[in-house]
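User: I'm new to structure prediction. If I give you an amino acid sequence, what do you actually give back? Let's try with this one:
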Amino acid sequence: MLSRGERIFWGGLAAAVIAGAAAAWWTADQWTPHAAPWAAQMWRKITRPGPDTLPRDKAGRPTPAAQGAAGAASAPLAPPRKCQQSDGRVIYTDQPCPRGSREQTVDGAVTSLPAR
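Assistant: Good question. You get back a string of structure tokens that encode the predicted 3D arrangement of the chain. For your 116 residues, that looks like this:
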């Protein structure tokens, strides 16, 4: 049997949880658009295994023989190019500029993001 103080504590805790759930449901249209991408990213991170959990042959790490073969033979990265097109658009690439555009110098650093 619970004492009076324990019943008050657990009853208060249950009321706080119910009030929090009701407030979250009532204001869901305000916070869901912000929380959904974060939750999806966290779910992907939780459910995908890391390289240390995969078998050695599937981990994506090169074997010692492959490390020696590809160690110093890797080619340097091509410098970024800034291509100004005739309609005013700018394209950053590591390939030669498309026809009809002119190459300009790259000012500062170029940050690239992976496509989804």
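You can read the tokens as a compact description of the fold. Here is one thing that stands out. The chain has a mean pLDDT of 81.
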